Amino acid sequence: MIELVIASRCTGCTACVTACPRDVFDPVPDGPPRIARQADCQTCFLCELYCREDALYVHPDAGRARPQDAAAIEASGLLGEYRRASGWDEWAGNEALRNQHWRMEDVFRRARDA
């Protein structure tokens, strides 16, 4: 479940707001998005995947909120871990393949045949 938006890391790009399929975030003018409907989070990690600044922390427990200490999470190295471990940015330099991970079979076939 989404737990934190780290204001000091957030650029206000609202990629997380756009990516969230459950409309969990509310955009805030000149500030980081607000977690407005935390209970609606389905723990899909899309917000974390799209956050280039690693400003979000999603706890893997989808069943209940687990308040987190922002400083401890920043120090832990967990911010952006899901995006890095998933290979989300692996094809970032190739415009034809960037962020096509939901179509992995086609991506790997095209890369192999290139």
TrEMBL record:
Protein name: Ferredoxin family protein
Pfam families hit by this protein: Fer4_9
Entry-linked InterPro entries: 4Fe4S_Fe-S-bd, 4Fe4S_Fe_S_CS, Fe-S_Ferredoxin
One term of GO molecular function: 4 iron, 4 sulfur cluster binding
Domain 4Fe-4S ferredoxin-type: 1-30, 31-61
Upper classification of the organism: Bacteria, Pseudomonadati, Pseudomonadota, Alphaproteobacteria, Acetobacterales
Alphabetical keyword list: 4Fe-4S, Iron, Iron-sulfur, Metal-binding
